[in-house]
């Protein structure tokens, strides 16, 4: 790639001079002017820096382009919203059969209640509801 074509690629960044333009620039020599050899050496250093800058900028632009392409390839359309999970309708609570329908006498019921309270004492430390 020539230095001139590099400049065309970077003009969008607002860079006015290429390394070749700096190299080709001629200055008029006047009495008591600058030492032309010293000016040329300094301009040669600037030209080398410009060449390095051009290379770095082009490499970074290429990397940006590649990363954007990779990012675009990774972007997937959003997943559809999850569907609500159907909640089964609870069946009506069936009433427990009464003690009298089971054939328990009031004395048997009282015995069961006593045992239940004793069990609660052991499990919870005191009877519930009293």
UniProtKB/TrEMBL annotation:
Pfam families registered for this protein in UniProt: DivIVA
Its keywords, alphabetically, are: Cell cycle, Cell division, Cell shape, Coiled coil, Cytoplasm
Pro residues compositional bias, start-end: 77-91
Looking at the UniProt record for this protein, which Gene Ontology cellular component terms does it annotate, in alphabetical order?
cytoplasm
Q: InterPro entries from the xrefs?
A: Cell_cycle_GpsB, DivIVA_domain, DivIVA_fam
Q: Name one GO biological process term.
A: cell division
Low complexity bias spans: 92-101
Q: List locations, semicolon-separated.
A: Cytoplasm
**Where does the source fall among the domains of life?**
Bacteria
Q: Where is this region: Disordered?
A: 75-104
The main location is cytoplasm
Write down the PANTHER family for this protein, in alphabetical order. CELL CYCLE PROTEIN GPSB (PTHR35794:SF1), CELL DIVISION PROTEIN DIVIVA (PTHR35794)
Protein name per its UniProtKB record: DivIVA domain-containing protein
Look up and give the organism this protein is from: Paenibacillus aquistagni
């Amino acid at each position: 790639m020539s230095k001139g074509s590099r400049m065309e690629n970077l003009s969008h960044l607002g860079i006015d001079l290429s390394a070749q333009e700096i190299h080709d620039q001629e200055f008029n020599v006047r009495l008591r002017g600058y030492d032309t050899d010293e000016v040329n050496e300094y301009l040669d250093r600037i030209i080398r820096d410009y060449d390095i800058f051009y290379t770095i900028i082009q490499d970074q632009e290429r990397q940006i382009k590649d990363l954007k392409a990779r990012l675009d390839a990774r972007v997937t359309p959003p997943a559809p919203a999850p569907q609500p999970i159907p909640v089964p309708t609870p069946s009506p609570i069936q009433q427990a059969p009464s003690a009298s329908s089971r054939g328990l006498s009031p004395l048997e019921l009282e015995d069961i209640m006593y045992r239940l309270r004793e069990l609660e004492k052991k499990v919870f430390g005191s009877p519930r509801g009293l």
